[in-house]
Amino acid sequence: MSLHVRFDAISKNFGPVQVLHGVSFELQPGRLVGLLGENGAGKSTLVKILAGYERMTGGSLAVDGIVRQFAGSRDAEEAGIVLIHQEFNLAEDLTVAQNIFLGRELQRGWMLDDAAMRSAAREALQLVGLEIDPDTRARDLIVAEKQLVEIAKALSRKARLLVMDEPTATLTPTETERLFGVIGQLRSQGVTIVYISHKLDEVERISDDIVVMRDGRFVMRGPTQQFTRHQMANLMVGRELSDMFPPKQPPIDAAPLLTVANLSVPGWARGVTFDLRAGEILGFAGLVGAGRTELFEGLLGLRPRSGGEVRLGGERVVFRNPKDAARRGLTYLSEDRKGCGLHMRLSLEDNLTLMDLDRHARPWLDGRSQRAALIRAIEDFGIRTRDLDGRAGELSGGNQQKLAMAKVLQPRPRVVVLDEPTRGVDVGAKRDIYFLIQRLAAQGLGAIVVSSELMELIGLCHRVVVMRAGAVQAILAADQLTEEELIAHATGTH
Amino acid sequence: MPPVPTDSVDAAGGSVSVNAPASSRRRRAVGWSQRLRSAGPIAGLVLLCIAGTLLNPDFATWDNAMNVLTRTAFIGIIAVGMSFVIISGGIDLSVGSMAALIAGSVILVMNWVAPHVGSPLVAVLLGMVVALVLGAAFGLAHGLLITRGRIEPFIVTLGTLGIFRAYLTYFANGGAITLDNALADVYGPVYYGSVLGIPIPIGVFGAMALAGGFLLNRTRYGRYVQAIGSNEHVARYAAVAVDRIKILTYMLLGGCVAVATLLYVPRLGSASPTTGLLWELEAIAAVIVGGTALKGGEGRILGTVVGAILLSVISNILNLTSIISVYLNAAVQGFVIIIVAFLQRGRR
Q1: What domain range includes position A328?
Q2: Is the same domain home to A180 and A210?
Q3: Are B295 and B209 in contact (CB under 8 A)?
Q4: Which pTM does this prediction carry?
Q5: Contacts of B293 in chain A (CB under 8 A)
Q6: How confident is the prediction along chain B (348 residues), in pLDDT tens digits per residue?
Q7: A479, part of any domain
Q8: Residues in A 334-393 with any Cβ partner in B closer than 8 A
Q9: CATH of the domain at A361
Q10: Residues 6+ apart with CB under 8 A from B304
Q11: Last residue of some domain: A237, A272, A297?
């Protein structure tokens, strides 16, 4: 059942850009390999070649000793290799069962055999511990459920080698636990697993071996036990990461900059009360579905809200839309970078200055002033780009995130809400972002950080608001911030 | 000041300098393909003009050129407004019917006002104001139904396509609404007159195209239109007043339709149920042939202008030559649209 893979001097070019430089290593049958590397290290490209989504430019790939060049993902799936993408590949309007069998529908004669597919889908869902009706539409699932459906889909394809690209990026700790249970089960059945994650604690916990890649090259492999997380991080970035988080500095002002009292967003949040001081970094913890994102979307007028009083700088405010909020000095960075954060097809400049065009229109748009703003932002935010004239979609994930942060900070807000500011971002970029938030807070900005990464909330925030099922469960001060405490409040088991 | 004093600046600087040769090569490549794309419609137009000249020497005359451009002006002006709507991710199917209704209303207003004010000139000017107000009001209605009413633009304007023309037919009692002779004499020069040898419709078309290009590329409004068409969610989250910009875009198109209609009315001096028939398709075709993506986000006014001229040059050549029957005019235009879409299909 297990599968052995050997990469031999694999290289890959996208046009003039070489993203893989002769990568060679082996995947041992039945082992779980944690594939580590910063964004842009070439991990995703490598596994896409393995799963038939991309073709290599040079080198060879051997599966169970036979050299293969997959024509497409179907070809790879027939060999038992299945990739679960970072972004979901579910057809939103189809049901779970239809999605699971998409492209290889069961038929009786020339008719679809819905009953058979439904019962097979139910079995696959049971394997991953997901108790939902196979007739549920994909769009009605929450993110974690979609992730598990993807895995069920892979299992129903009789995967012998499963590649998971950032599977827990959108999962809460509980859901992550459930996923690990499923992974453990698969491994005991002899499935070879490649696990790509930025979360080193997860890799440390579940992998047998680690493989580190950097700048499109293989760096090293070894048994996981022989490395500390710190060593892994150092290997990924190729330099010493002495500490991820800047030292905390006390907030500047004792008077609250933003107070929110009794704010409710129907269906998502009720009676939420908190305050934020200038120079403070206030965290928001909670499980997916706890209503954190929706709370702030309500605050910005993106969702209907009922009741509540919001004061910014002592003045009572009601934001009808994000424009209103931005004019008053509050901006919001969405957790959904592609859907709500950046225009992937527009240039870096157009993205950066979109919220602050007034400053570049005198009254006609001034290209030079926009270019100057871009160059300044690239320096201030440490954005790495090969091409100033490129599009936002051409940046790596970490650099897109820095650009998105630079964008919401362009109007010079007094309060910024950063929703999952380091999602899908590598260790080096994460550290940059933490130091950046800290620096801005030290200059008097009030920062709200909504995050599912507990280490991040603990390391960065002065206080953390824990939400559960739409309500504030606790507000923890710096000395109360531990993973156990946060999880206990978030799950209601305190 | 960078967030991480040393590392990230080094890394950033290093990455830029290391990749400098690759990046300049790439930029040139991007520039080339973009230039090729925007040059595509122009190249097509030039080839067509060469072909026209070879086929019939009358084609390359000043008179014929002015004739073609004057007839392009109506569709061209509407297409400039349509570009904004399409770039913002919308569509307006009603512009032909809207033109007909505005034409009828303007003639009715002029005929009715003239005896009261005594001066035909005042009546004509008043009629022009009414046209612009009507165009903007229709656009406002579209915009409100689309944004506040949350109805697809396709459906809203499919509805008004029927409504506008039905009202014109009703006002005209199924026949034609005709401008009084005294008024036609005063109003006539708007279509037949010229300034410095350039017919007025061409001058107005040129001016509106220039203004449109400027508005799209050099103002906040234009940038927001592109941002909304590129991804409406991102624009909304980035504090763009999405609804207001969209409403303005439909009003702008309504205004363009009004201007086109005002240039068109003195040509025949009447409006009938066939006035402006299929103009919406011609305007949309001009925008698409000009290289604007139907799903929004990207587009150029110059492209639209070239697209509009290209389509009318095709029918002009068919009129002047006998290789292909004039009856196949629409077919040739249809082939051109499909070929252009085929050439652009690689674009995202």
Answers
A1: 256-491
A2: yes
A3: no
A4: 0.77
A5: none
A6: 333 333 333 333 333 333 333 444 444 444 555 555 667 788 888 988 898 888 888 888 999 999 999 999 999 999 999 999 999 999 999 999 999 999 999 999 999 998 888 888 999 999 999 999 999 999 999 999 999 999 999 999 999 999 999 999 999 998 999 998 888 888 888 888 888 889 999 999 999 999 999 999 999 999 999 999 999 999 999 889 999 999 999 999 999 999 999 999 999 899 999 999 989 999 999 999 998 888 888 889 999 999 999 999 988 888 888 778 878 888 888 888 888 878 776 554
A7: yes
A8: 334, 336, 339-346, 350, 354-355, 357-358, 361, 363-365, 378-387, 389
A9: 3.40.50.300
A10: B76, B79, B80, B82, B83, B209, B286, B287, B290, B292
A11: A237
